[in-house]
Amino acid sequence: VQLQASGGGLVQAGGSLRLSCAASGRTSSSYAMGWFRQAPGKEREFVAAISWSDVSAYYADSVKGRFTISRDNAKNTMYLQMNSLKPEDTAVYYCAASDLAWVAAETRRYDYWGQGTLVTVSS
């Protein structure tokens, strides 16, 4: 599975952005997907995850209530709607996919990673 993230950019605090992650390749099987981010000088951290069936979603406490993860399996695309952005949300955002139908925040269970897209939130 190849993943292509897009939608990053520069936004003022309180603003919104929507990230997309397009999957290609072996997409006929069920796979969970997730978003991670890495801020300068920090380790990569979990942001949100969604199951293959779009029934289950899981969020990091830091983004709960502000970010919404979704997916359109017909388009092989996952989204991350980010509202009420804060300067501390500034990071490179990565999308990931697993061969499992649900993995939540377990980084080691994600098998495929896309390149990052930079989100910068100015104060």
Q: Helicity level, as a percent range?
A: under 10%
SS content category = mainly beta
Low-confidence stretches: none
Number of strands: 11
Main sheet attributes: strand count, strand direction, barrel closure: 7 strands, mixed
Q: Strand share of the residues?
A: over 45%
| Separation of the first and last Cα atoms | 37 Å
What is the number of helices?
Answer: 0
**Alpha-carbon Rg, integer:** 13 Å
Mean pLDDT: 94
Shape: globular
Order of helices and strands: EEEEEEEEEEE
Explain what this protein looks like in three dimensions.
- Helix content is 0%, strand content 48%.
- The chain has no helices and 11 strands.
- Strands 2, 4, 5, 6, 9, 10 and 11 form a 7-stranded mixed sheet that branches. Strands 1-3-8-7 form a 4-stranded antiparallel sheet, with no helix packed on it.
- A hairpin with a 4-residue loop joins strand 7 and strand 8.
- The radius of gyration is 13 Å and the shape is globular.
- The protein starts with a strand and ends with a strand.
- The mean pLDDT is 94.
